Write the structure tokens for this entry.
Amino acid sequence: CQSLLDSIHINVIPLPVPTVSGNTLICGVGNSTTLTATGGTFYQWSTGDSVASITVTPLVTTTYTVTVSDLNLCASLPFAVTVTVDNFPSSVVNASGPTTFCGGDSVILSAAGGNHYLWSNGDTTQNITVTQSGTYIVTVTNASGCSSSSASTPVVVTVNPVPPPIIISGGSTVFCLGDSVQLFASPGATYLWSNGAITSSIWALLTGNYSVVVTNAFGCSSTSANVTITNLPSPSLVLFPNGVIDACKGQPLILTATGTGNILWSTGETTSTITVVPTTDTVYSATISNGICTSLGDSVVVNMIGNGLNADFSFTPQTGFDPLDVTFTDLSVNATGWQWDFGDSLGYNFQNPGTHTYDNSGTFTITLIVTDIFGCTDTARKMIVIDPKSRIIVPNVFTPNDDGYNDVLRIDSRHLSDLHFAIFTRWGEKIYEQDQIRPEWNGRTSSGTEVSPGSYFYIIHATGTDGTIIDTKGVITLIR
């Protein structure tokens, strides 16, 4: 027999695939998290719960499983999810030193117990160096991702200002010996100067560098830059002569000041040597300055000596033509010595020289220097004008024989503005002429012909410098 064939259709349904969502990290024991399963219709947790979402509060890290079934009651394989339980990391901040300090200093703030750090100033290092005032908080995160903040115990850093130390001078820092300058420190609570003073200002007397340490109310200190004080010595001055000296009234006296610097005399002069002519008892003084310091100065007292010496004289005539004889008479008072100078010679050294002859014209200064019993001198000067007198001198013989003696006839003239000279024979023939102030004749005609020995006539027409017309004539003898 043969059986009948039959068939069965089997439908294979895939198993549901569960997923679980929720926070799998709990920071701090006693906290809870909600786990939610999806991917099916029915749920069965290892906790015994048969709902999709469960809230768990594990004390330690715990693994939870869930089985998901669909409407066909097909069940998934158990799906495991681990909830990690970890403690909050410490967020205590430690300071390396005082958190209140002066500008320019710093403090190191440190945190520990984490893998990641975030400070309130944005830094992410475990340690930070703080130089500015402020409130500092750190958030510490450990390897599990748990974080804690020090917000409840922030670190307050106070940076106090440092005083700006400045020295203000009450005057020039370069001054002369015996002077001083006051130095002022910028405001503060206490002061300590380089010379040991503890006041807010000092008087600087000596050359050197001065500085000050200024401390404010916060106890912060700083040191100023140096101020250099220069105390210059006064320049020295020596006068020559100095002290008390005797001098003749009206006599020049040379005073000399020696020193390095600018000299100023009581007369207003600024040269090192001056010439004074005191007529009464006089004190002359001088000071010297180097541009900053001026010496106390020096002086010389000049006492007048003498008995009223006065030089004077007269002369007559007061003027005339040369040559002129002039008589001089001494009129000096209290003189015991005389020295005459007539302007054309040294003159004489006795009281009344009598008559002196001026051979030439011109203006002459007559000087009489007299001396008294003290050795003082006085001088009188007067002028005399000798007018020029026109004159012509003609030799009457000459010998043009080329022996080197008296070969040329030379006309001597004085004070002429022009002169015409002409030579004639005995018969009136003009053989030679010349227009010169001092003409000459060599015994030849104007054409150069030698003339014979004998007598010749000359005629001269001239004009003096004073305008006088002079006409003269005479005879010249020529001998060969």
The chain has a mean pLDDT of 91.
